[in-house]
Amino acid sequence: MQPVIQLENLVKTYHAGEVEIPAVRGVSLEVLPGEFVAVMGASGSGKSTLMNVIGCLDRPTSGRYSLDGVEMSQLEADAQADIRNRKIGFVFQNFNLLARTSTLENIELPLLYSRPSLCRQEQRARALNALAMTGLTDRSAHHPNQLSGGQQQRVAIGRALVNRPELLLADEPTGNLDTRTGIEIMGIFQNLNRMGLTIIMVTHEPHIARFCQRTVVMRDGHIISNDPVQHRLDATSKLEQERLALQLAS
Amino acid sequence: MILPVLYQIALRALRRNALRSLLTMLGIVIGVGAVIATVAVGNGAKARVEAQIAALGQNVILIMSGNANRGGFGMGFGSAPSLTKQDYDALRQEITGITGVSPDVRASAQVAAGSQNINTSVFGVSEDYLQIRTWPLAAGANFTAGDVRSANKVALLGQTTAQTLFGEGDPVGQFIHIGDASFNVVGLLASKGMAMMGMDQDDVVLVPYTSAMIRLTGDTTFRSFSVQASAPDVVDDVKTQIAELLRQRHRIAAGKDDDFHIRTQQEIAETATATSRVMTVLLGAIAGVSLLVGGIGIMNIMLVSVTERTREIGIRLAVGARGRDVLAQFLIEAVMLSVSGGLVGIAFGIAGARMLSANFGWSTLVSANSIVMAFAFSVAIGVFFGFYPARKASRLDPIEALRYE
């Protein structure tokens, strides 16, 4: 099976004046279609930089990166934008929704930049479809500040999915959420993954990483371990357990 | 990206900061309003001057006698008695391409009819005068060449004079006293309106120049003649003929200055409009500067807006907006500010021009041209001053922008 993501000896070095700061120092990694990978590591380990390169927000200093068999490392800014639009969905720790903009319009946002552009009806139809997936149909006119953190993150997931991407990149998606809501988000990810979506997620919470299939750990710009998850958790049963535990306690 | 969507996004962004948008627009409103009002005042003045020049008649050439020099001071054209009756006769007989000649003998006199008695201008003219000045009669008939030859005591009354002397009654056939002579009113002139400097052109009595010279002024020479050329394209030729004829008759050696002065209506018009044009340009420039300041205001607020919305720009870039999509978004926002400011400014400018005419009696003329220009200018200002902030937004690094707090 052809990997969705293939990284070969990827290096990213930042220049701060005279000083060179190596953030990623030669990473090779393959992610197969339908995988759910957690990237872990302390801050400064290079995991965010790696995610930026994979998300086509940044270009590597050297090395190769192919997404879906297409070389990405030398793309121009406009081509990168188109890849982000069509092939990648982003979910962020702080949700990054447009303020004072309705749920539906937030979800619709990537469709505005589709090339070739979609007609208005098609945009609406796709946005409503993605909205239904997030289960927020009854909140379609709400603004982000009228939604809870979990709901906001679900809007962000809807926005990430609206263009039917190959890859979902999540940067600490549960970092701003309480444990229970975090597990709910993991439940959504596991469902999407079961339907075939490839997901790469940065997290530094070990119990969140246990919902994934594989954990990649980084330190000082290198991958130091790349292992399948032992005793993988299922979000649905985990939530059920917690509900029972709560009932017993009371 | 689809244009209507861009408009919608821009409109929403502007509405979100309604007060700020309004204040920014105000700069353009004032600038455009000032330009429109200024140009309207300038055009009004120009139109008025042109109307007054046109009131002189058609294809008219003025000949003035020379500049008398008394004790080293020039007295102005028309002050030296260099034009004679013989010159006048020669003009009538020898110049080709003319349709009329009239002397302009001017006097101020006491005019009375019955118990009414006023001081007014009495013009001594030839029978061609009404045609030269395209001045129709309201009633009665013009005096004839015979009246002129025999210095008959006949008169034509201007509307104002007639009204003062006879009220609503018909003046034709009545008698008026000019000085101590009694004149028969043979015609009533149509109304001509105000002349330059607010003079009432209808406060006048026209009599044969022969009668005026004999009975009123006692002069034997003329200060000026009006000549009418038969068509606009022969005006210059007629002017040359007159100059040659008069130089020859006055025996002016080659190389010496004329002892008379000839100006065509065109030349008079140019002098008069030049002054008002300078004023218009000057005021327009000042108004233009305020428009420029308005543009800088837009640039300022757009720069603030780009900084404030760095996160939003980051999000848009992350979900696939290209640099030019962001550029278009901010550019349209700037243009929307300047154009709506421009439209309101046009309305204010028109209202301002109306107010100036109503309150100060200035004639103003808002031309369609100036409205189109002002509109185009406000679009241009939006594009020009919006471009730099928009480009700045479009060149943001998506990673940096997403992290911006």
Mind explaining what this structure looks like?
The complex is a heterodimer of chains A (250) and B (405). Chain A has helices at 47-54, 77-87, 103-112, 120-134, 149-161, 179-194, 206-209, 235-249, and strands at residues 5-16, 19-31, 36-41, 62-67, 70-71, 88-91, 167-171, 198-202, 214-219, 222-228. In chain A, strands 6-7-8-3-9-10 form a six-stranded mixed beta sheet, sandwiched between helices. Chain A starts with a strand and ends with a helix. In chain A, helix 3 packs across helix 4 (120-134), helix 4 packs across helix 5 and helix 5 (149-161) runs parallel beside helix 6. Chain A has 250 residues and is α/β, with parallel strands linked by helices. Chain A has eight helices and ten strands. Chain B folds into two domains: 3-51 and 273-403, no CATH class; 83-249, no CATH class. In chain B, strand 2 (69-70) and strand 3 form a beta hairpin. In chain B, helix 2 (18-55) packs antiparallel against helix 9 (265-308). The model of chain B has no long low-confidence stretch (mean pLDDT 87). Classes of the chains: A alpha/beta (250), B alpha+beta (405). At the A-B interface, helix 2 and helix 3 of A face helix 10, helix 11 and helix 13 of B.
Structural class of chain A: alpha/beta
Mean pLDDT metric of chain B:
87
Overall helicity of chain B = 55-70%
Q: Which value, in Å, is the CA radius of gyration of chain A?
A: 18 Å
Count of extended strands of chain A:
10
Sketch the topology of chain B as an H/E string, one letter per element: HHEEEHEEEHEHEHEEEHEHEHHHHH
Residue-averaged pLDDT of chain A: 92
Query: In the residues of chain B, how many domains can be counted?
Result: 2
- What proportion strand of chain A? 25-35%
Low-confidence stretches of chain B: none
- How far apart are the termini of chain B? 27 Å
Helix coverage percent of chain A: 25-40%
Number of helices of chain A: 8
Rg on CA atoms of chain B, Å: 33 Å
Largest sheet of chain A: 6 strands, mixed
Contiguous runs where pLDDT drops below 50 for at least 5 residues of chain A: none
As laid out across the biggest beta sheet of chain A, the strand order is 6-7-8-3-9-10
